[in-house]
Amino acid sequence: MTQFFENIKGDKAIWGVVALLALFSFLPVYSASSNLVYVVGNGTTIGHLVKHALLLFLGFGIIYGVHKIPTHFFKGLSIIAMPVVLLLLVYTLAQGTTIGGANASRWIRLPLVGFTFQTSNLASVVLMIYVARYLSKIKDEVITFKQSILPLWLPVFLVLVLILPANFSTAAIIFFMVLVLCFVGGYPIKYLLGIVGAGMLFLTLFILTAKAFPDVFPNRVDTWVSRIESFTNGEDSESDYQIEKAKIAIATGGIVGNGAGKSVMKNFLPQSSSDFIYAIIIEEYGLVGGFILMFFYLLLLFRIVVIANGGETIFGKLLVLGVGLPIVFQAFINMAVAVELFPVTGQTLPLISSGGTSTWMTCMAIGVVLSASNKNNRAPLEDDIVEEDETNPLEVLSGQL
């Protein structure tokens, strides 16, 4: 055991935060899983807890393995992984089935282990690494939009267009994170504004096409529209029911909560162990527990920025921000949905919610961040060494703001 801990490298604060979040997750997952058992009739509470433990165990194995990889290796790995990811997304979209009348072409089933795998989560991590590689490559060049179309925006467009039909929220988050990374990486703002305009135009055309041919994407576009309308106009819908129950759970929790396992709304709130687990946490542990959990995500964000700022290469800095920021961003999106500051998205709470692929891909991203924070992994290529007069992406961000 001592030898194992000696082999753990990288930022100790991130290791600590991730371990604490994972350990804490057992309490709300065990409590909220009773909804799946007694309401949905799916398995047992012990079974869900054991599954969650197994997923986290494998997740920490992923963190350990990935954090041992030298940081600059991720450049080549992203080039190799990008076509694989695109093929997986095509396969996922093509073989998707309908569950309860809703399009479920987000997952593929792994034949040997029986788990379902959501390829969009893998695509998100790979794409952010790929974009970081490209931005570090052009750091000293005066880039034109035409030059960046094929190497940068074509892969981004292909990933987004393959995710969008079945998972609008994930596609939107990926698009936003790519824009943020490009902004921090010094990509010209005028080109980014053009990309935003083109993205909005494409989304409008896609929605109109899906409305004209509803059999192509069963229920998905209608679901997006109804969720947004419910959020903006207060119209009754399934998502409005979820938000209502989530707000009741939060109001019931008060300041200190009802105690571990004593949530009542978990029996009425759909997705209480995944999408709306934050509401159950506040019901059981109160606003105190909710703010403490929020603090740990802010601490994770702080350490990500510190590691990025201390990186020795432009690629290392952008890599940490590219894979680290989406974790915290997704966490706050999940929290915002629970308190009705954001429309229902279906995004889980990283390292807390029950789930398979989302947990593993979050662990992969954390492993990449830890790899960049490990001084033994900082063996940059000669042409990627940051000279004293080179631009720091964080300085670019502060300067442009």
Number of strands: 4
| Rg from Cα | 21 Å
- How much is the average pLDDT? 83
Helix percentage: 55-70%
- Amino- and carboxy-terminal Cα gap: 47 Å
Provide structural commentary.
The longest helix is centred in the C-terminal third of the chain and has 33 residues, at 277-309. This protein starts with a helix and ends with a helix. It is an all-alpha fold. The strands form 2 sheets. It has a two-stranded antiparallel sheet with strand order 1-2. Strands 3-4 form a two-stranded antiparallel sheet. Helix 5 crosses helix 7 (145-163). The chain has helices spanning 2-6, 12-32, 34-39, 45-66, 73-95, 119-137, 145-163, 168-184, 189-212, 220-233, 238-253, 277-309, 314-338, 357-373, 393-400, and strands at 98-99, 102-103, 107-109, 116-118. The radius of gyration is 21 Å and the shape is globular. The chain is 67% helix and 2% strand. The protein is built from 15 helices and 4 strands.
